[in-house]
Every structure is written in structure tokens, then in C-alpha cells.
Amino acid sequence: MALAQPEPGGLLPQRSSPPDPPDRPLRGALATTACMETLQVGYLHAVAAAAGCSLSQPFPDNGIDWHVSHGSPAHTIDDEITIKVQLKCTYQVAPRPPGSAFSFTLDNDHLVKLARTPVAVHKILVVMLVPRSRDDWLRADHDRLGLRHCCYWLNLAGHPVTGRHRTNVRVPTARIFDDRALCEIMTRVGAGGRP
Q1: CB of 54 within 8 A of CB of 68?
Q2: Coil, strand, or helix at residue 104?
Q3: Are strands 66-71 and 166-172 parallel, antiparallel or unpaired?
Q4: Angle between helical axes of 179-190 and 32-51 (0-180°, round to 10)
Q5: How remote is the C-alpha of 192 from its chain's centroid?
Q6: Bridge partners (DSSP) listed for residue 171
Q7: Radius of gyration of the chain (CA)
Q8: DSSP state, 173?
Q9: Of 2, 67, 72, 162, which has fewest CB within 10 angstroms of its CB?
């Protein structure tokens, strides 16, 4: 790691950058991709809270981001069931994608992990579409906090690898990932079915 050396007199050299316009907040210098990861985790937390689910993060991460658990005496296979969730985020797909699905590319090694079947614990992929500019990610007022744009989910169990290094998967636009969708997923899994 290289450290900047102080100038004579003890001060570090100052780099000038253009100031933000006066109506825009001064955002931190964290990389956009890191901010996208944080935003999608916030979305997952909000959905899990509204669905009455608990979250845990595997450590170390072995290709799965989160475990989501749902407890209910109505489940037939156990009183608490868990699914594994892999989060992805992109600004390369426009909001409200036209048609019944949009294309998303996964590394083949990752797809193999998500597509494995049979499994003891089901896995889903959750893809969040965000605006390119962080200025457009979030709006708050007295009635709500709005995150843009949307998350969609997909069960990839049994999906074939078709590309040499990466494979395109089709994410259905009807599968919006919200609290009701998560409750329905958990109900199916809790009855011994698939997500």
C-alpha cells in the first residue's frame, strides 16, 4: 500500500475536483458498485421485515449472500424454513423492462451453484434494477421511503449452462420481489414445494 508523503511544511498536496452543483448533495467517494450492493441489501431487509422473516449472512460467503428464514405453525415440513438468496444489482437494464422477462448474465460457476438440484435448502436469485445515477435511487417524504427501481426473483434450479464462461438467464418481470412474494415463496417451501 502506498501512502502519500507530506509536503514540506507538513501538509498533503490538495487535489482539486469540480464542485457538486449547489442543488446536489455531496456524496461519498465509495464506488458505485459497492453502493449498489448496499442498496440491494437495504431492499432485502425491508422486504424481510414486512414479511416477518429473519435474515442471516453466511460467513464466510460461499457464493450465497443471505439466508432468509420464516417461522409459522402452518408450515408442514418444519416450524421454520429457510431459503438462500443471491443478490445482484444492475443499471444496465431499463426500469419496467418490456415483455415478460429480461436477460441477465451470470458467470457459469455461479449459475451451477444456483441451479443445483435436488437441494436441502432452496435458492433464489434476486436481481435489482437501479437508475444509473445515485441521485435517482431514493426518495423520501412524510408518507414513504421509495427505492428505485425494483427487484425481481427467479428460482434457477435445473437451469442449464449454455455459454462458454457466462450464461444469460431470463428473469420474469411478473416476479416482483416484495413482502407478499416472499411470503408466497415461504408458504410453498414450507409445504414441501419449490419457491
Answers
A1: yes
A2: strand
A3: unpaired
A4: 60
A5: 25
A6: 102
A7: 20
A8: T
A9: 2
Q: What is the pLDDT of residue 140?
A: 94
Does residue 23 fall inside a structural domain? Answer: no
Would 146 be classed as within a structural domain?
A: yes
- Give CA separation, 137 vs 39, 110, 146, 147, 192, in Å: 8, 27, 8, 6, 37
Amino acid at site 38: T
Q: How many domains, in total, are found in the chain?
A: 1
In a domain, 144, yes or no: yes
Residue 44 grid coordinates:
432485502
Asked if the structure places residue 195 within a domain, the reply is no
Q: Specify the amino acid at residue 68.
A: V
On the CB side of 24, CA atoms within 13 Å amount to 11
Query: How is residue 112 written as a grid cell?
Result: 451451477
Beta-bridge partners for 169 = 104
> Which of the two residues, 30 and 66, has the higher pLDDT score?
66
Domain of 52, in residue numbers: 32-101+122-155+172-190
3-class DSSP string for 67-89: EEEEECCCCCCCCEEEEEEEEEE
Residue-wise pLDDT for 108-152, tens only, equals: 999 999 999 999 999 999 999 999 999 999 999 999 999 999 999
